[in-house]
Amino acid sequence: MWFKESYFVTHPTEVQLFIYAGLLMSLWLAEGFVSNVSFNKKWKHSFTNVMFIVTALPVQLLMTIFLLLVSAWVMHHNWGLLNWLPFHHTFFVKYFIGFVLLDFFEYLYHVIMHKVKPLWKFHLIHHTDHQLDVSTTVREHPGETFCRMCFLILWVFLSGASFGVLLLRQTLQTITNITSHTQFRLTGASEKLIGWVFITPNIHHVHHHYQLPYTDCNYGDVLSIWDRLFGTFNKMESSETVFGLDTHMDEKACKSFQQILKFPFIKNNHHTLS
Question: Fewer Cβ close by (within 10 Å): the C or N end of the chain?
């Protein structure tokens, strides 16, 4: 079998860190070499985003303990949607159906973060980056990290996902999340072919446009099929895309880590048409 669950279960930290750090650094350097922006200027922008790793990591690690405990419980008790399906022990149901189900739940989570105002106040931090690049991937308020992990624990409880499918899904999610925020865009047939199945930078950049209705589209995480099925898919030319958020157009404030941390607690953060 091409995928050995035991390796991912016994080495989850090494796998995640290697992929996450390696891909982030490689694409960050590639962006710098290709763009006309100096590495010094690029680092000044990225430093603000990287600071969010410091605040989010303790929350992530603590919540991961509870995530693994819930995953162990559902496996032990054969609980959840995947365990109630026929042939639930087969590779197809356990991994393929499990992956698709978790990806749908992540789409649902993203929609909820946009539609529920108290949650949106934390998620909007990710949208306030006026210079989208690969470092924007880690621009997440610790409050959202907590919300995201709570929802992931709920999804695992409902789905009955095993350690293996969870780690497989998280690994692929890491790759698509990082690549979808990069400045590089696909062209021609490659974009059409890949974009029909997966979230590409072209698709996700639209989601980061500063105004509605574009901010409320292209919610997909790994697969783009959910946006197409539920009518939240949209397109936009790169020349027309303006990154940021219409409620937070002060670039100076959006570059200050201390200021950004306060955004969720400031009134009038409701995203409306301009």
Answer: N
